[in-house]
Specification:
This is PH domain-containing protein. InterPro entries: YdbS-like_PH (IPR005182). Pfam families: bPH_2 (PF03703). By secondary structure, the protein is α+β, with helices and mostly antiparallel strands. The protein folds into 2 domains: about 55 residues; about 80 residues, PH-domain like, CATH 2.30.29. About 45% of the residues lie in helices and about 25% in strands. Strand 6 and strand 7 form a beta hairpin. The two termini are about 25 Å apart.
Length: about 160
C-alpha cells in the first residue's frame, strides 16, 4: 500500500460504464424539467422578480451536467486475490474493501431506466449491514460475470474457513 489510502498499488481499476452519466442526467431532467417549466409559467404570470427561481433551477441543472460525469469517472472496482475493492467520490472519497470470505450474497439489479440505458448494478451483502458495497453502471454481461465470479470466490473462501 502507498501513503495514499485511496490508490493502493498493484491494483488494476475497472471503470463503470459511461452510460451511467446518461441515466443519472435523465433522472435529474425528469425532476428539474417540470419544476423549471412550472416556475417559468409562474414567473411569466407574476412580477419580474420571480424569475430568480427558474434561474436557480437552471443553474442547478448546469451544475449537475458538470458534476455527474466527474462522479461517474471516479467510480471503479478492482478484483484482487482475496477481496474486492470499490471506490467512488471526488471530494468525499470512499474505498470499500470486501473480503470474498465475508460475502453472503450478491444481487444484480436493473430497473426500467437502467435497462433502457443498458446498465445494471451489482450489490454485495456481508454479515454486517454497514458493509454492503454497490457497483452501479455495469453492462449487464459484466454484471452477470461479476456476480458469478464473486459468488464462486465467496464460496471458495468460506469453505476454507
Amino acid at each position: 500500500m502507498t501513503a495514499e489510502p485511496f490508490t493502493p498499488t498493484d491494483v488494476t481499476w475497472t471503470p463503470v460504464s459511461r452510460r451511467l452519466v446518461g441515466a443519472r442526467l435523465t433522472v435529474a431532467a425528469c425532476v428539474l424539467g417540470p419544476l423549471f417549466v412550472g416556475l417559468v409559467v409562474v414567473a411569466a404570470l407574476t412580477a419580474p422578480g420571480v424569475w430568480a427561481a427558474p434561474a436557480v433551477v437552471a443553474l442547478v441543472a448546469a451544475w449537475l451536467c458538470w458534476l455527474v460525469p466527474r462522479q461517474v469517472r471516479a467510480m471503479a472496482y478492482a478484483e484482487r486475490a482475496d477481496d474486492l475493492l470499490v471506490r467512488r467520490g471526488i471530494m468525499f472519497r470512499r474505498l470499500v474493501v470486501v473480503p470474498y470470505g465475508r460475502m453472503q450474497y450478491v444481487d444484480v439489479n436493473a430497473g426500467p431506466l437502467a435497462r433502457r440505458f443498458g446498465i445494471a448494478s451489482v450489490q454485495l451483502h456481508t454479515a454486517s449491514p454497514a458493509t454492503t458495497a454497490e457497483i452501479d453502471g455495469l453492462p449487464p454481461e459484466e454484471a452477470a460475470r461479476l456476480r458469478d465470479r464473486l459468488a464462486s470466490r465467496g464460496e471458495a473462501r468460506l469453505a476454507g474457513l
